[in-house]
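INFO batch 0412 | record 1 of 1 | parsing
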Amino acid sequence: RLECLIRCRSARHATGGHPAAMADREGKEQAPDVVAATAQLKSALEKVAPKLAPNAAPAPPARACLAKLYALSEKRLSELEAGAPKECGICRAVRDETAWSLDWDIDFAKRRMTPRRLMFVCRRCGMLRDLPRLIERLTHQQFGGDHGEDALISELLRHFLDVNGLDAGEAHLLQDAVSLANALLVVHNELRLAIAPGRPVEALLGAEEASRSKRPQKRAGEGAEAAAVAAAAARARG
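INFO prediction complete | emitting tokens
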């Protein structure tokens, strides 16, 4: 199955073999290996998808996660969403439907992750950020999904290309982004990261505003370089 292929090749690329191999390494040897692997994968993912990429954090849905971490009431959650700009926090389009999305800071030494940025995103950006569900959708399409699902995947692919400044000839980069993000997710899952509150919720929203003027632009040659990293993951499974 496509899903199994993605998981296997991502895991082997991220760890240099089976993901369980990380658990067998000495502690002082493992930490540098993990940091180096995640740095390489994150860099490659940012080159393939500089603005919109699947989220590799092993966390529950953002809204429920924030409610639990910060003991937020339903009223307070609704106030946060109502007070946010009406445009998507990623593609800048007006949000027809709203999805909550979190970026995370990861402390490898403490094996802990804390929220860094809260974004209110449109339906399509939210679907592309939801890595587990995106893998399910791609798997379903690969094995005879219905017409409605095919149309949705095509819509998401067009959105991915448009937001990241890519053309139709680079459509394969969506699969590369999924493979790289899943490799990161495999590493993160192996670490069994604890989820902890970090900066105040208001600061998480402020981080979204600050990021609007600092989004990286894709540089010439970066897509090919990152695609080579994703291709290495495919070769590793052999």
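INFO post-check: The CA atoms of residues 54 and 128 lie 6 Å apart.
INFO record closed
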